[in-house]
Design goal:
Elements: H1 14-21, H2 25-46, E1 73-79, E2 82-91, E3 94-102
Antiparallel strand pairs: 1-2, 2-3
């Protein structure tokens, strides 16, 4: 690293640059982690309903287990060259899955 002063991004407000310049290295690392997490959170919130995975089937199944919500869809996941059906749904920021069974290659 050079001993020359760093040049902050031109689009960063001056008050933010001044506040950052007063922080210790430990606090700067904490701010960096928080800023990255905050940016990801805001990007997720700004996205319209997240697009379903490519392999998701379009039909709404009628044989949902009791612990799977109505909004769940069936997806196909490939694991070790084998294909399996999974129920999949969103709960807040998380995507939940429940195993349904193997994909029948004869279908």
């Amino acid at each position: 690293m050079s001993d020359e002063p760093l040049t902050p991004p031109t689009n960063l407000p001056t008050e933010v640059v001044n506040a950052l310049n007063e922080l210790s290295p430990t606090h700067l690392r904490d701010v960096a982690r928080y800023a990255e997490e905050l940016a990801e959170h805001k990007e997720r919130e700004a996205r319209p309903e997240e697009e379903p995975p490519e392999e998701e089937l379009e039909e709404q199944p009628d044989d949902l287990p009791d612990d799977v919500p109505r909004k769940a869809t069936i997806t196909i996941k490939e694991i070790n060259d084998n294909r399996y059906y999974y129920w999949q749904w969103r709960e807040g920021d998380k995507i939940k899955s429940k195993y349904k069974g193997p994909v029948n290659p004869d279908e």
